[in-house]
Design brief:
This protein is α+β, with helices and mostly antiparallel strands and 582 residues long.
């Protein structure tokens, strides 16, 4: 039976049939000003939202125009929250105002609530006709606005589960979403990081019609300008030194270079700022995926013979019902010496990079009482971050992602505030850039016919389908004990265990690049079929990009031989090996 699977979503309409209630989606503002569209937590909180990421300086107003149907007094509600309230600290750093035709709503927003909720802004009288709406940031410290709701019924309240997905899928078995039908592809790649981009390019080179769906405005994932992690690892290694050529080409340039490589290929349709959040199954096969434009809410339906999950978080596989793991396996299950005695939900941490520059004259910075507090013993004395700045080890990297990102905001701002106000060498320094998109190392791992383990790597096991050379050590991160001493349970500095070097390079088997229970699903990137320990070895981007190349080539064998990803290995392996050598 066909069935529709989707992340928990709720629904809304622009105007109530009973009243002139108005809904304004913040991400749909005509002019975003200095506000940023933050779509990375859509599946957890229900919508993209606007973020005032000004490094302590208020950002330019976001502005749009709406039509007021009837002159009246309106009660104004805004979906937002005080993003530091969950830590029980003083202050509300994300304060902002909403203005209608030059008049501010009585209340200031972002001042209350530990979770996303509707904050009552009070009553404002509005005339009929066109009305300018402004979001006015007051601080530059991560204020956030999801939506605005107005009602002439001054006693009305928006429903707590009021939806913000303008053309969301129908939550009924057997029914399709209201979506533009994009036609049928040979391969749909979900996730435009290094792995997904490489998969799309390699498949297109073989003549496949490919859709590449990416929920950010740029390609590259952790290697993009939004996160700025350099590619690590080696490419073009034995046994197939031709693999990795696309990775190296991507590594030559910036976001624009990566996009240009895709845009010149007539076999690839690129869909930036489209978030995949629903699918339709047919037995054990994915039939359609649905993607929503993060600004307009418009939905598209993609049909394909084959799909590749390159999302990092394994989102496509999760929706399809693919077998997966989260956290660390137990030592008794895997036999790995580096595994814990008991299975748990501990992860490698996630990072926000930041940097500063030295100016020619002193500059000030607020004390940030709401941030993590530092002193002369705990201050990092840093002009920028490194890979060591990471957090979230004991939190769910998917469900708790916004919490982890916001905690790193508090760490970075708190440390910088102490340096600016107490350490002389930072008098002339200024923050110049800070990521707001979380750089994840680990989350879901989708399970294939082979699950690579620590023993495979250290003993250099020779798989008959070995194809991707992985030159990194078993690089497992955990809290630095020195950091734990001062910040127990909320560490943000990592210590790496590189003790598992083994014989290099280990060659990863093809059978870890497709799902063991979803017949037409490939995966490439950090969500492939490995244990937590082995994940520490395969997760760097030159390696994951080479996985993408293998998946793209394997998809072409599937098309030519009318076979599944599993059957590529069992029946057509030499045909894929031939492509590796061309």
């Amino acid at each position: 039976m066909k069935h529709l699977l989707l992340f928990p979503l709720v629904f809304w309409s622009l105007v109530s049939p009973l009243r002139a209630d108005l809904h304004i989606q913040a991400e749909g503002f005509a002019d975003l000003g200095g506000w940023l569209v933050d779509a990375q937590f859509m599946d957890q909180m229900g919508s993209p939202y606007l973020l005032a990421h000004g490094l302590g300086k208020p950002v330019k107003d976001a502005v749009t125009t709406i039509s007021i149907p009837t002159a009246s007094k309106y009660r104004v509600w805004v979906r937002t929250y005080n993003w530091t309230a969950r830590w029980k600290v003083p202050g509300a750093p994300g304060r902002f105002q909403v203005w209608f035709n030059g008049n501010a709503v009585p209340e200031t927003f972002g001042t209350v609530g530990e979770k996303w909720h509707w904050q009552d802004g009070g009553v404002l009288e509005l005339a009929q006709g066109e009305c300018e709406v402004r979001l006015k940031d007051l601080t530059g410290f991560a204020g956030r606005c999801d939506a605005i709701w107005l009602s002439p019924d001054l006693n009305a309240k928006p429903r707590a589960n009021l939806s913000f997905q303008r053309k969301a899928p129908v939550q009924e078995e057997g029914k399709s979403a209201e979506a533009e039908i994009m036609g049928k592809y040979d391969l749909v790649v979900v996730g435009g990081g290094v792995a997904g981009t490489c998969a799309a390019i390699r498949a297109a080179e073989q003549g496949l019609k490919v859709a590449l769906i990416q929920n950010r405005p740029v390609l590259g994932g952790n290697n993009s300008s939004e996160i700025r992690v350099p590619m690590a690892g080696k490419t073009r290694q034995a046994p197939f030194p031709k693999l990795g050529e696309v990775v190296e080409e991507l590594n030559k340039g910036n976001d624009q270079h990566k996009a240009a490589l895709i845009e010149v290929d007539k076999n690839i349709d690129l869909f930036l700022e489209h978030h995949m959040n629903a699918i339709q199954m047919e037995g054990k096969r994915i039939k359609y995926v649905y993607a929503q434009h993060v600004r307009t809410g418009e939905r598209k339906r993609f049909e394909a013979t084959l799909f590749a999950d390159c999302t990092g978080d394994g989102n496509l596989g999760y929706l399809a019902g693919a077998d997966f793991r989260l956290g660390r396996e137990s030592r008794s299950e895997t036999g790995e010496s580096k595994a814990p005695e008991k299975a748990d939900k501990v992860f490698l941490g996630a990072t926000l990079h930041w940097k500063s520059k030295r100016g020619s004259k002193p500059s000030s910075f607020p004390k940030c009482e709401w941030a993590v507090q530092f002193d002369e013993k705990t201050c990092m004395n840093a002009f920028g971050s490194s890979w060591k700045w990471e957090a979230g080890y004991r939190y769910d990297m998917i469900k708790d992602a916004e919490y982890i990102r916001d905690y790193l905001f508090r760490v970075i701002y708190g440390n910088w505030a102490y340096q600016k106000n107490h350490v002389n060498k930072f008098n002339n320094a200024q923050l110049t850039w800070m990521a707001y998109v979380l750089g994840k190392r680990e989350s879901r791992r989708l399970l294939g016919d082979v699950i690579v383990k620590q023993q495979d790597i250290l003993e250099d096991r020779k798989f008959p389908d070995g194809c991707v050379s992985s030159s990194w050590g078993i690089d497992l991160h955990g809290p630095d004990p020195k950091n734990t001493k001062h910040f127990p349970g909320e560490e943000f500095i990592a210590k790496a265990d590189h003790s598992g070097k083994g014989k290099q390079p280990f060659v990863i088997p093809y059978r870890s690049f497709y799902s063991r229970n979803i017949d037409n699903l490939f995966m490439a990137g950090r969500c492939i079929s490995v244990t937590h320990v082995a994940h520490g070895h395969i997760r760097v981007m030159k390696t994951t990009g080479t996985m993408g190349e293998v998946v793209g080539l394997a998809a072409s064998v599937c098309k030519k031989q009318k076979c599944t990803p599993r059957e590529v290995y069992s029946e057509h392996w030499e045909k894929l090996v031939k492509l590796f050598k061309e």
